[in-house]
Amino acid sequence: MVASLLRRLLSCHPLAGPGLLALGLLAGLWVGWSWFLNRPTGHPSERVTVEAGMNARGIGLRLEERGLVRSGNLFAVMARLRGLEGRLQAGTYRLDGHRTTAGMVEDLLQSPIQTARVTIPEGLSRHEVAGLLDRAGVVDSAAFVTATGDSALTRRLGIAAPTLEGYLFPETYVLAQGSGAEEVARTMVAQFGEVMAPHLRGRLPALGLTLHQAVTLASIVEREAKVQAERPVIAGVFLRRLRLAIKLESCATVEFALGVHKDHLSNVDIQVESLYNTYRYPGLPPGPIANPGRAALAATLFPVESEFLFFVARGDGTHIFSHTRQEHERAKQKVRQLARREAR
After folding, report:
1. 107-116: pLDDT as tens digits
2. Largest CA distance in the chain
3. What is the DSSP letter of 113?
4. Which of 194, 223, 247 is nearest to 296 (CA)?
5. Running DSSP on this structure, what letter comes out for residue 319?
6. pTM
């Protein structure tokens, strides 16, 4: 249609000829192709970060990689023709693939959304993660707890568990303030998926564990181990106890059942009625007790094989490992004696 209109106009021009007609046809084709590339991609909205120093072409190519525009080069041409390249600011923006490329240029002229850099430490529960995110102004803690406890969301994210406990990967994130709880949860679970790559998941059959069981065990290792070198040893102790059908007797699982941290558990504490109490119930608890990091996951997948069946904390972050319960009782007595001596 554009080419037909140009042809009619050119036929009336006294200088019209084959060369000018060809030029007109090329112009018409360019206009038509640009119209096609300007159309929305239909990609769902997502956050895109523009780094300082990025030019229009760099921004356009990033949008093209994300599926938000059909042509990064067309984005750059539109920004330059309108003299807008110098007005595109660094920052994080929420962009929608239902907008045209021209509309995307306009959207990037708006003020970027405010972001917060948040570091999620290893070993926090999802409730603790929720509190940290709330204090950073990212998301309401109650909304995050509700979202991460929604079994429908866990299914949509491909997690075979009732909650996302254990799958909110500890990492440093740059998150938009006022984000939706589900969006933040998705980001953290996606990071977990990247870390637990297929070659690591391939270790599970040799250990006789499902992914959920491995994450559960890694969460216990995370809460029990303080020294990096001891993580694989502690993981090996727990795996050996599982194979021998000996209760794990993990203080960390009792603390999770109690809902509070205690420096020392009493005999009453370890009798608490909960499936998470590994002093009362054999095997692994129903699910993770925290969100383990890379080191704890690696220790669980690549444990140190040993004859140890017990360990007790010295109080300085390290543990005394024992082969028998008699050795273990002597080790505990030694730790108590040292504690009394230091308290004097």
Report:
1. 888 767 778 8
2. 110
3. B
4. 223
5. E
6. 0.74
